[in-house]
């Protein structure tokens, strides 16, 4: 069932329920009020009749003038003696005249039905010096009140039906306005599904409700994110295939050379084997880095823990020192410095930076670890070849290398800093490059000590 139908049905049923309760209340209340006022009229009449002294005299009970002035079309007034005889009577209503004559020595009053008409009655004993001489009886038909109540019921029904109709149209109109943007969203989603092209939902000029705006914004944000991811992936595939092509071309052309002249010419054979070995290694490095980057693109790549940065940097520095036979000096003021993050990824990030420092410099390398205002700062400084200022902005692009000529000597693939940037982003950190050509390079990292949002970007 659609939201609109559900909402309309719910409103209608709820309204009907309220109206029924309300109408019942009004009906009962009005009946009670009118009956009470009729009873009051009867009581007043009885009091007036009793004011006459003749009514306390056995001989005058049948006087014609005693009841005449109280005559009313919808009433019957009579006096009945203890032996059950009617001695005085006023009234012309046949229904009331047909009521049985019965003497009762007590005061009684109440309500009964004659046919379908309500009748109020009151019976009062009459005394002459403490001796019961008769009974005054008044019967009053409530046919006028009943007809008023019928009008009331009709009016209540008409207004209730009118209210329900208005409510049906109102809710239908309102819910169609309310659900129009949702339907628009569904349509857009279907279109995306059909065409495979991501599209955002436009926010109209009409004032939408806050929740719907939130929904549309969340949807658009999701689309934007997907769009960015797709674009990144496309770019990655394009860059990767381009980068893979060069070493493959080199390998296949050297293999061709080997095939043709390799058996006879030793020089060519050695050159070809050398080149093929070098390019294969490059291919290996390239695919390794590419896989790592592809992995880094995943949103839930991090596994968080709290660890000591100083200890990690120390261990890493001595390991690289041994492997590359280069001096790496670690400076820190704090004995230990804890931060939350993915230890392996931070380590990988430092390996990337130190690998560059080792590759692009010859002097000793300095690593400084410090803590500034709830954040951890790491500087990696080398006194190497440095980077031109206009190149710095491109360093984090994939496959970007400052000078094509360096490729030959250092053999990098240009993915290190892209991976580094991704790791920094996932840790909500910051990475900056300060460099002067010929003087050296400092890369600074800054991370919050505790991670708030781990959802990645
Ligand atoms: N410390 C540094 N000194 C001088 N140049 C640097 C330094 N670090 C990076 N660069 C320059 O930035 C470029 C990009 O670095 P990046 O680490 O991304 O790639 P790479 O080192 O060439 O290859 P790899 O993917 O193997 O690390 C490098 O090619 C280099 O020209
Ligand atoms: Mg590198």
TrEMBL record:
Residues 176-231 form the HAMP domain. Its EC number is 2.7.13.3. Gene3D superfamilies: 1.10.287.130, 6.10.340.10, Histidine kinase-like ATPase, C-terminal domain. GO terms for cellular component: plasma membrane. The chain crosses the membrane at residues 12-30, 151-174. Residues 239-451 form the Histidine kinase domain. It is a multi-pass membrane protein. It comes from the Bacteria. It catalyses: ATP + protein L-histidine = ADP + protein N-phospho-L-histidine. Its main location: membrane. The keyword Transmembrane applies. Keywords: ATP-binding, Cell membrane, Kinase, Membrane, Nucleotide-binding, Phosphoprotein, Transferase, Transmembrane, Transmembrane helix, Two-component regulatory system. It is found in: Cell membrane. InterPro entries: ArlS_N, HAMP_dom, HATPase_C_sf, HATPase_dom, His_kinase_dom, HisK_dim/P_dom, HisK_dim/P_sf, Sig_transdc_His_kin-like_C. GO terms for molecular function: ATP binding; phosphorelay sensor kinase activity. This is Signal transduction histidine-protein kinase ArlS. It comes from Paenibacillus albicereus.
